[in-house]
Amino acid sequence: MDAVDLVLRKFDGRPHRQVTARLLGEDEFGTWLSTPRGTVVTYHYGRRPTGVTRVDAVRLIPAEGWWMAMFLAAPDRRELYCDIITPARWTGPAEITVIDLDIDLVRYRQGKRVEVEDEDEFEQHRREMGYPPEIVAGALAGAASLHEALELDREPFAAHYRKWLGAPT
């Protein structure tokens, strides 16, 4: 399986986070990447420059859409973590780049509770970095439709991802 660099940047172009994943394949929902437990993640913010993933996970990069999802294996209390982003684009033969637009949605295993995080950060960066109206509209519409899909347990968020989470890496 091929290595793919997943690069997250902020709207002003500065690096945010990067992880090298394994390409699992594609289906009607998008491109599936694996980040097994212990995968190194590079952070361009905060105190620690690198970390490692604590559980196995698969990431879904939709062909179109203003989000990407990370499905986490047990025992993580989160079932999935989604970033609101600009639509992903291949920026090299083995590199996918997205612009992280701050808003995150998390669904917890217990009770399938969905929480929206960092809306305040979105508002702050919207002003500081001058997000254009089409970026704001795309991010907010993406967050709303994703929230509904998570609440209603629509695929690929219901059970489809389990096929990929169990795939060999």
Describe this structure in words.
The chain is 21% helix and 44% strand. It has helices at 119-129, 133-151, 161-165, and strands at residues 3-9, 15-27, 30-35, 40-43, 50-52, 57-61, 67-72, 78-85, 89-92, 95-108, 114-117. The model has no long low-confidence stretch (mean pLDDT 93). 30% of the residues are buried. It has a single domain, classed as FomD-like (FomD barrel-like fold, Beta Barrel), CATH 2.40.380. The chain is an alpha+beta fold and 169 residues long. It has a seven-stranded mixed barrel with strand order 1-2-3-6-7-8-10. β10 (95-108) and β11 form a beta hairpin. It is built from three helices and eleven strands. One of its GO terms (molecular function) is hydrolase activity. InterPro entries: DUF402, FomD-like_sf, Ntdp-like. It comes from Paractinoplanes atraurantiacus. Residues 12-151 form the DUF402 domain.
Whole-number mean pLDDT: 93
Fill in the CATH topology.
FomD barrel-like fold
Shape: globular
Name of the level-1 CATH class: Mainly Beta
Beta fraction of the residues?
35-45%
Largest beta-sheet details = 7 strands, mixed, barrel
| Low-pLDDT segments | none
How many helices? The count is 3
H-E string: EEEEEEEEEEEHHH
The portion of residues assigned to helices is 10-25%
How many angstroms does the end-to-end distance come to?
7 Å
* Radius of gyration using CA atoms only: 15 Å
CATH superfamily: FomD-like
- The CATH architecture can be named as Beta Barrel
> Largest beta sheet: what is the strand line-up?
1-2-3-6-7-8-10
Strand segment tally: 11
Structurally, how many domains make up the residues? Answer: 1
**Secondary structure category:** alpha+beta
